Amino acid sequence: MLWLTVSLFILQPIFIGFIAQRKKHRIGAVWFVVAFAVNIAFALFMDSAQRSRPDFHTPEYQALHAKPAYEIAFALSIFIPSTIALLIAIFTLPKRRVEGNSDDQPVTAGALKVCPDCAEQVKLEARKCRFCGHPFNDARLSDPAPL
Ligand SMILES: [Zn+2]
User: Dihedral sign, CA of 85, 87, 90, 92?
Assistant: First the structure.
C-alpha cells in the first residue's frame, strides 16, 4: 500500500470532522465516517479509471506507476477533489443549534435587557454591555420603578 494515500485516508477525515464540529457544531465522528466513505469512492473511481486505460498493462505504464511521484499524484487526485467536495458540503449546511453556550447566542440565564447602543441582549444586572461596553447608569433598567 501507498503510505501517503494511507495517511491521508486517516488525516483528511480527522480534519473534515474537526471543521464540521467547529464551524457547524456537527458531530465530528459522523463527518469522519462520511469523509472516509467519500475518499473510498474517489479512490475506487480513480483506480478503475486507471485500469481502463488501454496502455495500463504496458511495461512503460507499469514503470511509471511504480515511481514515488506517481503515488503523490494519485493521492492528490483523490484527496484534492474529495476535500473540496466535503468542505462545500459542510459550508452549505445550516449551523446546528446547540444548547448552552454558543458564540452567536446570548446567555439566556436570568432576565435580559436590550442595550440601547448595539441592540444586543445583556443580563438585567449588568452595569456594562458585554458587546459594546455601553455603561448602564440608568437605574430604571435594573430596578423597576416603584408605583
Ligand atoms: Zn451594547
Answer: negative
Same domain, 110 and 81: no
- Which range marks the domain in which residue 134 is found? 106-142
Cell of 131: 458587546
Distance of CA 117 from the midpoint of ligand 1 (Å):
5
pTM: 0.60
Residue type, 72: I
In a domain, 101, yes or no: no
| Ligand 1 ion: Cβ-proximal residues, 5 Å cutoff | 115, 117-118, 129, 131-132, 134
Confirm whether 85 is domain-assigned.
yes
- 50-102 confidence digits (pLDDT tens): 889 898 889 988 888 888 888 888 899 999 999 999 999 999 988 777 655 44
Q: How far is the CA of 132 from the centre of ligand 1 (A)?
A: 4
- Domains: count for the chain: 2
